[in-house]
Amino acid sequence: MGIVGVFVLLGLAVLLSDNRKAINLRTVGGAFAIQVAIGAFILYFPPGKELLQGLSFGVAKVIGYGNEGIQFLFGDLARFKLGFIFAINVLPVIVFFSSLIAVLYYIGVMSVVINFIGGGLQKLLGTSRSESLSATANIFVGQTEAPLVVRPFIKSMTKSELFAVMVGGLASIAGSVLAGYAGLGIKIEYLVAASFMAAPGGLLMAKIIKPETEIPKVTLDELDDSEDEKPVNVLDAAAAGASSGMMLALNVGAM
């Protein structure tokens, strides 16, 4: 039934496409193949399972550090002595993860990873560099933060590129929200697998519904890091990330 569901969704996307003749089979077929390959590799093959378990262990370890801070701050309220309290056991983890990701951006770790994966997607799928980088950023950050990776070039994007950026955000969850879901008891390995599969999956659906009919104006060499509004130091980055995470946590709590 799962396979049937996949083809039903693809069929609906084709029906909703605003220009079926312009659908690029290389992009669509490649994105589908990459998504299937990622899922098969990390869920069914022993080396992939070990890699996924390693990533999941790392994420769980980081979440554990965050939980220790929460317990220090809230005491018995965070130790389940009064039961599971969503506002105490989940929302602060979102703030912590958001701050951590902001620090990783500041020291350059996230930029290296995103450029590496995004560059690979661009070469394999024939998508533009900007939409590939945005799709990759959505693996780690949310729909609000991911477009900031290509913010200086949004005004020059084609309609198809803008649509791909939006769909990529809707197809994925932020790393901070992933930590929140993990706090609810969802297996981390499935959350990590879904996050990585969402990048090509978002491009797949976007390029079926809104295929590229224009010539992208942003070239590979133009996609350098913007210096605008960069944190002045690590503490500034951590504070800005925590502030952003607080807003996200409030939104999650309100919903």
From TrEMBL:
Coiled coil: none annotated. It is a multi-pass membrane protein. This is Nucleoside permease NupC. Belongs to the concentrative nucleoside transporter (CNT) (TC 2.A.41) family. GO terms for molecular function: nucleoside transmembrane transporter activity; symporter activity. One of its GO terms (cellular component) is plasma membrane. It is found in: Cell membrane.
